[in-house]
Amino acid sequence: MMFGLLWIAVAQFVPVPRPAPAPLQVMVDWRSAPIAAGSWLWRAVPGGSEALFQGSGGVQLALRCNLASRTVTMVRNGAVPGSALTVRTTNLERSLPTSGTLAARDPLLDAIAFSRGRFAVEGGGAVRLVVPAWPEAARSIEDCRK
After folding, report:
1. Residue 14: inside a domain, yes or no?
2. Continuous H helices in 24-144
3. Residue with more model confidence, 6 or 140
4. Domain tally for the chain?
5. Which of 91, 50, 90, 46 is closest to 74 using CA atoms?
6. Rounded CA gap, 137 and 72, in Å?
7. CB neighbours of 26 closer than 8 A, spacing ≥ 6?
8. Which position among 13, 116, 119, 120 has the lowest Cβ density within 10 Å, counted as fewest Cβ atoms?
9. Of 77, 89, 90, which Cα lies nearest the Cα of 124?
């Protein structure tokens, strides 16, 4: 009786390292996100006024009133020019260009002035900024309505 030899090739098992899973990105609702460290400053400037939100890295957000045109321009420091910003308030949300100019009576400005404690500015390649709804922003908006 002949027995055939059965050759079994056994491959050596080498575990392939897997990349670490990406950290779970939990998007916290802006209404419960921490308010950015910093404070608002209002000042009169030639041709109008401005409200500046300043943190440790300088001015992060500006609302500038142009009396001649009765417009308010919102500028987010660090935003990529030409990209859109999203402004979120307790009762209104809208996208606008990074240097968005709004008519002084635009409802978004009212929503910013009367937002409950905070509003957020997102997009433009910059991190979300949640700022307190202090009177300085409302004052600059109101200056353009006189």
Report:
1. no
2. 107-113, 135-143
3. 140
4. 1
5. 50
6. 10
7. none
8. 13
9. 77
Tokens of 117: 């404690």
45 in any annotated domain: yes
In a domain, 5, yes or no: no
102 within some domain: yes
16 residue type, one letter: V
Number of residues assigned to the chain: 146
Of 114, 112, 1, whose CA–CA distance to 61 is shortest? 112
> In this predicted model, what pLDDT tens digit does every residue of 25-51 receive, in sequence order?
556 789 999 999 999 999 999 999 999
Distance CA 132, CA 130 (A): 7
- Say how far apart CA 19 and CA 29 lie, in whole Å: 29
- Give ∠ CA 141-53-91 in degrees, rounded to 5: 55
List the domain range (segments joined by +) for residue 85: 39-143
For the segment 97-115, what is each residue's pLDDT rounded down to a tens digit? 766 899 999 999 999 999 9
